[in-house]
Amino acid sequence: MPRSTTMPPDLADAFGAVLDDDVRVDRHEVYARLRQESPAFRSERLGARVVTRYDDVRTVLRDTEGFRVPTAGVGSPVYGRTFLHMSGQEHAKKVGVVAREIRSRNALRNGLDDRVEGIARRTTADLALGTPVDLRDDFAMWIPLVTITELADLGHEGSFRRWYRAIGSGGTNSITDPGARDLALAARDELHDFLVTLIDERRRAPGDDLFSRLATTEYDGEPLPVDEIVSSVIFLLAAGVETTERVITSTLRHAALHPDEWRWLREHSGDEEALAAYSAEALRILPPVCGVMREATAPTTVAGVEVAEGERLCVLMASANLDETVFDDPHTFDRDRFAGRGSAQFTAAGQILPFGAGTHYCVGARLAQTEMRHAFAALAERVATITPVGDLPTAVGFMLRCPPSLPVVLGGA
């Protein structure tokens, strides 16, 4: 029998407060109640059924045939057709171009790890000591942004900063801010015009970079469509930078408020596996991407609730990663939770769900791990103390989440 979809009025109000970023409401407590009382409820504000339990979230994310990524409307990505919309041989072939550059062990051994380390060290060296800095805008953002633009040999980091933030906010995050979508579409069109010119140049004279690989790759004997190349680059920019910037910012806020955490990071800055475990826990409890949208391709059930064909689902990884049936003491930041299996969390076999699941598991997960490790290590080697400037801003955002800024004073090591 399908379970009841009736939601207690007080819980409905509490979820509405979560959508509004009401700091008086503990979203962790709200999610815990939702998992118990309404694990797949209908939200008219979101125009979607909200899925909250770990097993249900994982099932929806893994079933790429039964639940597709929406292609239009509020809450859907603005990049156009990307790897997320592909399946079978097409997906394997096209995503493989990117995977070879940013996910494979060969890529990490053959320069990617050194490149990210160099970017992290240069970014850290530029930080002022003893005077206020914003660790989000001055540090966390630049490491993934410069990494992507260097890998693709695109340059123009300043313009890309503006483009990617508008595109990210107007995609998934527009589910609670529809007005952001117009700004995102305008930014996408600007970036499209910039990239189209470069595609012609790289096809005539390809370089040793990711953008050239995409420009010259063929599928079924034909070059990839220009719009598809543009969409893929925009997707890598928005998804690759947004996720890492936000989780680094949130983690450093946690460390600034808990000096023992920063001391631990300094003591373990050279331990790759310890930093991987720490980063995995940060992604679990301080998720940069709290949810994604999916659309049912046929009538089905989720958490015992009937879902119609074409119905949208807001899949809340932020709730799934706090599921008490999967994680002990889930509301505690436990830096030893994934000890000895930290790196595994950045693969499709991992327990946490910040990167999706199944065939469409995020191709940039390993790159995110590498960026987080070098960001924390480089900063820890130069900075002994992180002192908040006033009351640090709290995290904001329903689908994409982190503090809007991180004003601190850094003390030299």
How many helical elements?
Answer: 15
CATH architecture: Orthogonal Bundle
- In one word, what is the shape? globular
> What is the CATH top level name?
Mainly Alpha
In the CATH hierarchy, what is the superfamily? Cytochrome P450
Q: Describe the strand arrangement of the main beta sheet, using strand numbers.
A: 1-2-10-7-3
Distance between the termini: 62 Å
Mean pLDDT: 89
Low-confidence stretches: none
The secondary structure category is alpha+beta
Task: Give the CATH topology.
Answer: Cytochrome p450
- How are helices and strands ordered from N to C? HHEEHEHHEHHHHHEEHHHEEEEHHEE
Strand content: 5-15%
State the share of residues found in helices, binned by percent.
Answer: 40-55%
**Number of separate structural domains:** 1
What is the radius of gyration? 21 Å
Main sheet, how many strands, which sense, barrel? 5 strands, mixed
Number of strands: 12
Explain this structure to me?
A hairpin with a 2-residue loop joins strand 8 (300-302) and strand 9. The relative contact order is 0.18. The chain is an alpha+beta fold. The N and C termini lie far apart (62 Å). The chain is 49% helix and 11% strand. The chain has helices at residues 9-19, 27-37, 54-62, 88-102, 105-125, 136-140, 142-151, 157-169, 180-204, 210-216, 226-257, 259-267, 272-285, 317-320, 365-382, and strands spanning 40-43, 48-51, 67-68, 132-134, 218-219, 222-223, 291-296, 300-302, 305-307, 312-316, 383-388, 407-412. A five-stranded mixed β-sheet has the order 1-2-10-7-3. A three-stranded antiparallel β-sheet has the order 4-12-11. A two-stranded antiparallel sheet has the order 5-6. The protein has a single domain, classed as Cytochrome p450.
